Structure prediction request, 194 residues.
Amino acid sequence: MIRARGVEKRYGRRRALRPLDLDVDPGGFLVVTGANGSGKTTLLRLLAGLAAPTGGRLDVDTERGRLGYLGHEPLLYRDLTALENLDLFGRLYRVPERRERIGMLLERYGLWDVRGERLASYSRGMTQRLALCRALLHEPELLVLDEPFTALDVEGAELLDRQLTELAGTSTVVLTTHDPARVEPLASGLLALA
Prediction:
């Protein structure tokens, strides 16, 4: 699914990602760790096609519409409700039976009761839950998650734990975390960036 050879990223003279080689098979679960500034977010942005490498070769074998991405920003519209946000993304991804899928995700992530409220009224944790729903809505074959446990309360983190367990082995997952022990049982690979 992912093959990288000597992939690196620079912004002018500043190196954001040191050259690295990487292979992730379909259904693989790669956990990426490292200190702040080690290039974790940069690597995920490269994998998601949001940035281009400045060196090396990167092949990601999936269509852009089959990729789910959750970064530091939720990529949601604050003036729309949860339903309106997910309906918009469901249409963009041409999700079959999107209303049922949206309802299932909102119920699973504990947002059903606030589905008609504008995102601007949500807490940071609720926004993170909705961003996870957005990333999962179209059932991506490659899921790229940058610190997905950020801002989640205990219940939200447990919901994400269950979701990742369900996805392990069926979808390809690349996830950054400062707490690798949390997802280590699911991992087929671990990449520590320096």
The helical segments are 40-47, 82-92, 98-108, 124-136, 154-167, 180-183.
